[in-house]
Amino acid sequence: MHIAVVGAAGMIGRKLVARLVSDGSLGGHPLTRLSLVDVAEPERPQAFAGRVDSSAVDISQAGNATALIAARPDVIFHLAAIVSGEAELDFEKGYGINLEGTRSLFEAIRLAHLKDGYRPCVVFTSSIAVFGAPFPDVIPDDFNLTPLTSYGTQKAVGELLLADYTRRGFLDGIGIRLPTICVRPGKPNKAASGFFSGIVREPLAGQVAILPVADTVRHWHASPRSAVGFLIHAASIDLQLLGSRRSLTMPGVSVTVGEQIEALRRVAGERAVALIRREPDELVMKIVQGWPQAFEPKRASELGFVADRSFDDIIRVHIEDEMGGKL
Amino acid sequence: MHIAVVGAAGMIGRKLVARLVSDGSLGGHPLTRLSLVDVAEPERPQAFAGRVDSSAVDISQAGNATALIAARPDVIFHLAAIVSGEAELDFEKGYGINLEGTRSLFEAIRLAHLKDGYRPCVVFTSSIAVFGAPFPDVIPDDFNLTPLTSYGTQKAVGELLLADYTRRGFLDGIGIRLPTICVRPGKPNKAASGFFSGIVREPLAGQVAILPVADTVRHWHASPRSAVGFLIHAASIDLQLLGSRRSLTMPGVSVTVGEQIEALRRVAGERAVALIRREPDELVMKIVQGWPQAFEPKRASELGFVADRSFDDIIRVHIEDEMGGKL
């Protein structure tokens, strides 16, 4: 099986490639070839005996998606995206990559389909940002698309295109709406959502973390490991089961910041918790107010998508996958 | 006030221009200038003393939208679209006009905004085709976007872009989801929905009409006159009242085909009804099964949008506006 990963140099992309190589197969089909693309050249996995093509390309530029599709990958994971904060700051860049890039990829697939009937499985990473307040406390699968950011708008457009290109028979698509990924590894960043990971990651590393919101703020989380599991599962199931509604809200863990902190106490003790410094930030509080708190992802659960069992587990995943299992 | 109508040569476009000229103002502002564009050159209204620019342009082609926006119209009615049936038959043409055309128009407005703060009112004609089965019997305002045609997909994308460009402050947008327009004047066409108008229009003109579905089929209708009324009203109200959800399902008349026929009997007598010939068509029946039957357009009603009162009225509008008031 030939698998392409668009956005392979990102955090989820790298973990996905590592998992694919470690599994050696997908949905029972042996993995023989990888095509990895991103705006920066993705690393080649060491432990893989098959063919790897890795290249630094922007798929929103003419011809690049066509070149990727020329090799007719069986499965395409489309993870490439300008993240929420940057898409909000740089309107043109966000629309360029998140909307034009996605259209460009789907168009390259359609033109290949018209040529020789090519019809790959496409796993599109969407986001809970396709939803915007006002919300019910628990958001159902059929909540309407009401994004309140340019990023969410671009992801919602991607979902609509994915469904139409699938309905037309050009590709076999599934969109998965990822929860906020927590604990995000790496350095603190300035994303408004950064503190959700920061209040766990920094204390675990013996550093101070700033908490800008109240302990009562509730949000929807999944570990990077779960996110990769969703992607793999999406490419392994019979997509006909989705019917015409091709995008699914993924399961996650709904916890308050207070519950996150209690989980940190249970897993890493009082000393870690003591490193959280409360510095209320009106702006962040206002932004976070418009975010979803919990979902009831019935369809995804029925289709076998499985999230972390608890926020304690989310913390343990971080310790295992990012800290070599040691505190 | 300078008003631009994109798609001014179409059925609704022509009626809108006639109504604007007849009113002589919009929302209390005297009409001083009209910019009319369509792929075929729109007719110039005779009775208008102000400036009229009329041109045959395809706004999806580079530069054309920019040229239209260079004159800084205060209000832009964006009606240009490849209709449902054609967008389904010609994928590239549908996406070209309905998606690229809309983006191109919004982008021209954004670039003008960045230059001098220009921020026009944009009335975008969407459609109930943004919704797809399975439906509840009566569809609420917040039903999710689930189009089952390329046309519906393109309109849903337009709605999402409209909301984001509005949120960013580039324009002040409102999307109105038109019901099926009935009675559509002119010749019978091959659209699957054509019979809804045909079974009224043809008998009123003394001609035979084919009815391909059962009398129990229910659908959502508005007269061309009501559609024009929605457009005018949309450009006249305070759009801040919409909040972030910028597209509204318009009110309409929910009737079964049987009720349409009873209305025809009341308005035009037995002789008209006798011209309807029942010729069941499995394909049309199957298509129509996936269509919405009724909506509860609370938001639009609260904002003062008013539909025809009954299907009898819809027939009378056709007789008045298309037949000089005479049977």
UniProtKB/TrEMBL annotation, chains A, B:
Instruction: Name the SUPFAM superfamilies for this protein.
Output: NAD(P)-binding Rossmann-fold domains (SSF51735)
Domain of life where this protein originates:
Bacteria
Query: Where is the NAD-dependent epimerase/dehydratase domain positioned along the sequence?
Result: 3-213
> Which keywords appear in this protein's UniProt record, sorted alphabetically?
Carbohydrate metabolism, NADP
Query: What is a single molecular function from GO for this protein?
Result: oxidoreductase activity
Name the chain's protein: SDR family oxidoreductase
The organism is: Rhizobium grahamii
